[in-house]
Specification:
- With 426 residues, the chain is α/β, with parallel strands linked by helices.
- The protein folds into 2 domains: 294 residues, Vaccinia Virus protein VP39 (Rossmann fold, 3-Layer(aba) Sandwich), CATH 3.40.50.150; 120 residues, no CATH class.
- The protein is built from 16 helices and 9 strands.
- The protein is globular and about 65 Å long.
Length: 426
């Protein structure tokens, strides 16, 4: 779900809507718009990452639908927003994802470290990196099309900083600096951020002429900001709770999480196959190369994403969603390939839902935040489809809310609103 900016024209309407759900049940306060400052509280703004869940949504779901010291699971944890909200609200957290950048960020965003220790390393890194510039040549990692994405001087200075970070012995401190380095890398790169910062494409020629970033100053600023965020997390985090971040595939969740082991699921899964919706692998690619994180298996990561392996819905068993099967027939009239892609995504997502049902306890809740999408110019009602699949698996549908998105910078995006599904295992 996109982080958002205030949309004043709709504020009054949504404050009224926030007083009730569509069914007129519980009062929910997260239907209103939130400012960037609100969305970036604690460590939520530590690093750019696509489709983050608005923290206030996770916070309210966690507080209303679980008890202190319960275990909250996010099987599509991304950069760890649900995990952060869990530990600062007195719950244990488990996050699962297949993306190595997401896993790094989730660990860093939930790890408390003394700020003075982090800033002491900053001085050391800045001193040694600037010294090395005068004495040696940097070891620049293999990054495909390096000078398409970075000016030569920028790439060299980044490499000097990275070399010093790699020498830090304390793994938790080193990971903090790797995450801050990655944020710096995005900030000083040639990536064009004007339209969609999550879709990596290079600046135009006229934009590159005036693009002369100060790498060391950007790095210093980001470390200072991120260390303050870690300090705020330390003050807010409740005692005796923890967050576990695990690499894994939600289609095989029970190989990671025991049956009936979690008290609440809060998650925002992908809205569709990466090829046609949000390409998480493409977004993470530059970081993965610079950080040396599984960069040799990017194709495998993309193939392992939901819908990454194509299926033929006409030759496989129908999925138990009337809404889905109806729209697939309409999409097929326009493009058989697109119909297969949508079917492939939901076939994989259905396997995830089966696993989620097994790991959550009886009488516990499962909350899914997912936006509708388009395919072949047709609306794919992800919310309705997800609810029907959940009900077939065995979940009881308790409540469904619609929440408008407010990200002005992404007005061209086809996703206009999110569906917040509140399900319960009987």
């Amino acid at each position: 779900m996109w982080l958002e900016l205030n949309d004043l024209e709709d504020t009054e309407l949504n404050l009224k809507r926030a007083q009730m759900t569509l069914e007129g049940g519980s009062t929910w306060t997260f239907l209103r718009p939130f400012s960037v400052k609100e969305a970036h509280q604690l460590t939520h703004g530590l690093h750019l990452y696509p489709a983050k869940m608005v923290p206030q949504i996770a916070r309210e779901l966690i507080n209303k639908l679980s008890d202190p010291f319960d275990t909250v699971l996010d099987p599509f944890c991304g950069s760890g927003g649900v995990l952060v909200e869990s530990i600062v609200n007195g719950r244990n957290a488990v996050g699962v994802d297949i993306n190595d950048l997401a896993l790094l960020l989730a660990r860093v965003k939930t790890t408390v470290l003394p700020r003075n220790q982090l800033l002491n390393f900053l001085r050391k890194i800045m001193h040694e990196a600037k010294r090395d510039i005068r004495l040696s040549k940097p070891q620049i990692p293999h990054v495909p099309n390096l000078y398409h994405w970075f000016k030569p001087s920028v790439a060299q200075e980044l490499a000097f900083i990275k070399d010093v970070i790699d020498e830090i012995d304390d793994e938790r401190v080193r990971e903090f600096y790797l995450a801050s380095f990655s944020a710096t890398m995005y900030a000083v790169s040639n990536i064009r951020k004007a339209d969609n910062p999550y879709f990596t494409r290079a600046k135009r020629a006229n934009e590159l002429k005036s693009h002369n970033p100060n790498v060391f100053e950007n790095f210093r600023r980001i470390v200072v900001r991120n260390s303050a965020a870690i300090s705020a997390l330390g003050e807010a985090k409740k005692k005796d709770v923890s967050a576990d971040v695990l690499k894994g595939d939600a289609r095989n969740l029970m190989s990671i999480v025991k049956r009936e082991a979690v008290d609440l699921i809060v998650t925002s899964p992908p809205y569709g196959e990466e090829k046609n919706t949000m390409d998480y692998t493409r977004f993470a690619k530059l970081s993965l190369y610079w950080l040396g994180l599984n960069q040799d298996n990017l194709r495998e990561t993309k193939k392992n994403s939901l819908g990454g392996i194509p299926r033929n819905y006409g030759k496989e068993e129908d999925l138990p969603s009337q809404t889905l099967m109806k729209i697939l027939k309409e999409i097929e009239l326009k493009s058989k390939m697109r119909a297969n892609e949508v079917f492939s995504f939901f076939a994989d997502f259905f396997e995830c839902l089966k696993q989620m049902y097994e790991v959550v306890k009886k009488e516990a809740y499962c909350c899914i935040v997912i936006g509708d999408r388009t395919a072949g110019g047709l609306l794919v009602q992800n919310g309705d489809i997800s609810r029907e699949l959940c009900e077939y698996v065995g979940f009881q549908s308790i409540e469904t809310l619609k929440r408008k998105m407010y990200m002005k910078a992404l007005r061209s995006n086809v996703i206009a609103s999110d569906n917040i599904l509140i399900m319960k295992r009987n």
